[in-house]
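Issue: copy button drops trailing tokens. Both records pasted manually instead:
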Amino acid sequence: MTGDARLSVCMCCSEGEPQVLDYQTQQYKLFPLLASTYAYWLSGLKMRATYFLLNYEIQQGNTDLLPEVNVLVMWSRAVSDVHFIFASAQ
């Protein structure tokens, strides 16, 4: 069906074109990715705050947090990489 024919069919309908989120299979694919996106965004905000705290601590001569922050950053990078690989395979 061409685009014009499809548009004319949809304009005749009183309900309109169904939305992507009306399909349960699309919800199963989209919602986990959306949730993980928000989780990564929130963890990024926390990491940013930790970065500024670490910079302040280093300026004061305290480097006690450095190994912990390094592990946290490496762990989050590994988790996000694995998640991206699995999400792009779907």
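Record 2 (pasted manually too):
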Amino acid sequence: MKNNLILPLMAAVLLIGQHAFAFCGFYVAKADASLFNNKSEVIMVRNGTRNIITMSSDFKGDLTEFAMVVPVPTVLAEKDIRVVERRIFDVLNNYSAPRLVNYYDNNPCGYDMRVYEDSYSMAAAPTMAKEELASTKMATFKGVQIEAQYDIDEYKIIILSAKESDGLQLWLEANGYKVPETARQVLEPYVRSNMKFFLVKVNLEKVKNRNSEYLRPIQIRFDHAKFMLPLRLGMANSNGSQDMIVYALTTEGRVECTNYRTVKMPTDRNIPLYVEPKFGDFYKSLFEKTYKQEGRNAVFLEYAWNVSPYNAVKCDPCVGPPPVNYDFVEAGADWITQGNFNQTIFFTRLHVRYSRDKFPSDLQFQVTPNNENFQCRYVMTYPATGSDFTCDAGQEYLVDLYNRRKKEVDELAALTGWSPANGSAYIREYNKHLNARTRENLRNEGAPITIKPNKLRGVLSATVLIALLMSVLYFARNRVAAEIH
């Protein structure tokens, strides 16, 4: 039996027979079947030159078919590798995801005092082995050396070094792993850089004892001057673009990309109420449009906040309970200690959609002193309740509501490319409460107002008739003038 190998930039998973969500790696499937990466998540912690990387795996399928290769800058000691629970990704994602906030208008003619807000997060939106590893006697195959081997929880780990990419690829193939032809060219830069290769397989007996269908994330730590993610390795079997979410934790400030632009996603925009049940689709369309507008080669900021214990406000609004010290320590922020409220931790969420033609180089990051808070936040304002808007303030409110809703529909079209025609009824919904005087004032001021279809036909007929009369008078005047001369 051949093992299906995944060589990612920092981690990867394989999903047999279903849609696969992997970590920027390439898949190796039986019979050269084509499998494509869609979305991946990674937690990156940076403290000085210390790097802690946590890799999430959504693998489902036959665990005998799972293998993973991770390029690392040094040989990792056993103490530098640990297995953590998937929940830490859920905590960070749920708290930093783009969010929808609801506000409510008061009825100026009544006593409706609804001024509270609610929120909805993108995180909740629908959204998107019998053969053992090679033995030490194979270590020198084509310049490949086995540097270390460990059994850690449900994983069997081997760390390789290689002198040439051809040797590494042949070693993998000789040990039962089928590698894409394009792997050789993407492996070469990492071999030249003297990177090591972290090979992971599943310990089937230990997985059975866990009684879980999911593989837990692996966390690695090492010291290195560079703060980067090697994307190129993840493009070996990519068909088009892949998405990656990076959750970055630092002791100082915001994390930004240095070799590609870091761009803020549009935020604090007012959108129509009918977006709420399809908020996930809204954000996908928004991201797609923004991604294209920015030339398909930018890294997008979705969240940045000082989440230190001494900072009480960590979002506006919050879509769930904030991460606590235990969560940050689990993610790798080992400078955080219980009971110390003077520690600083800054949380950055980045979203990158990358492809081979637009991202020819690995992502290089830096920790900046920028402590500005940022979040992807979209606002929906519900109209006042009740049917009594007869007071003067109520009529003014209805006019403002009409104009506001028109701006919301136009904003939605600008953000997503969705047709504004779908919002026509939404814009006019409350015009039925306008009284005759307000309607007359709007006409005199030239403000837009709803005209019923029958009246519209009458207006158009009158307009055409007036135009014809003016044309007749024009030609008659010219004819008279010609006769006089």
